UniProtKB/TrEMBL annotation:
GO terms for cellular component: plasma membrane. This is ABC transporter permease. The chain crosses the membrane at residues 21-39, 77-100, 121-143, 155-176, 183-202, 227-249. Keywords: Membrane, Transmembrane, Transmembrane helix. It comes from the Bacteria. One of its GO terms (molecular function) is ABC-type transporter activity. The keyword Membrane applies.
């Protein structure tokens, strides 16, 4: 346990010194601010972009437009920022050889994997929760908040998908020992999920549901039971990815 805590502190220091922590927090604060603001200003922006003689009529923006923009930002940019910032979380240890001394002194290799996953999860959870809180505050300021459904499950979707991406980055780093390998593993998994999503009968259990159906769940158009299969598959994939990382790392020569 002492080694585990020491490694977490080491990860925390390195993430701060390499500006990963402040960058992640800053980007997600920005998402929290611009999501409701962009939804509020979108009708005016479209009016300004309209060509002469073309009239654009849009309904007044609502709180749901703000959340639609938030989930879109998370899906298109937020998760991408997470992947880019932490793509080298394992690969850099191999290139710099920083683990050799620790491992030769008897540090369990699984402790390295678990500490990296824990620290990255803490940063991702903190940044995501902060972004949700800021979006909630600004949305409540601009609009009257409607009745929402399944709040915890709705906002847990992108968070859980982020954990899945983190576990895939670690697996890719262990398998290929390069940042490119981590990115290719993560990107390949997302492409595979996108292809699987083409089959209608497989969509319900596809982890992509966690980041594509949030608004439907929030408005009650999607039942909780329609969301659970994807969540369970994502949890299973995380466990398999971390377990595989530990097994492969135990057998890899440093």
């Amino acid at each position: 346990m002492k080694a585990y805590i020491a490694l977490i502190k080491k990860e925390a220091r390195e993430n701060w010194r390499t500006y990963k922590t402040p960058l992640l927090v800053a980007v997600f604060i920005l998402f929290g601010v611009i999501s409701p603001l962009f939804a509020k200003l979108m009708p005016e922006i479209l009016k300004q972009l309209a060509t002469t003689g073309v009239k654009i009529t849009l309904p007044p923006p609502t709180a749901l437009d703000s959340w639609a923009q938030f989930f879109k930002n998370m899906r298109q940019m937020g998760l991408l920022v997470l992947v880019i910032l932490f793509s080298g979380t394992v690969a850099t240890e191999f290139t710099r050889g920083t683990l050799i001394n620790l491992l030769t002194k008897g540090l369990p290799r699984r402790t390295v994997i678990l500490a990296k996953f824990t620290m990255t999860t803490v940063l991702w959870t903190s940044a995501y929760a902060l972004s949700v809180a800021i979006t909630t505050a600004y949305t409540a300021y601009y609009w009257t908040m409607p009745t929402y459904h399944h709040l915890i499950l709705t906002f847990s979707g992108p968070w859980l998908f982020g954990l899945l991406l983190i576990s895939l980055l670690i697996l890719g780093g262990i398998c290929f020992t390069t940042t490119i390998g981590s990115l290719l593993t993560c990107g390949g998994a997302v492409i595979l999920m996108t292809l699987i999503n083409i089959v209608p009968t497989w969509q319900a259990s596809n982890p992509l549901t966690l980041i594509t159906q949030n608004l439907a769940l929030l408005t009650g158009k999607l039942a909780v039971g329609d969301f659970w299969p994807a969540a369970l598959v994502a949890v299973g994939a995380i466990v398999i990815s971390l377990g595989s990382s530990i097994i492969i790392f135990d057998r890899r020569a440093i």
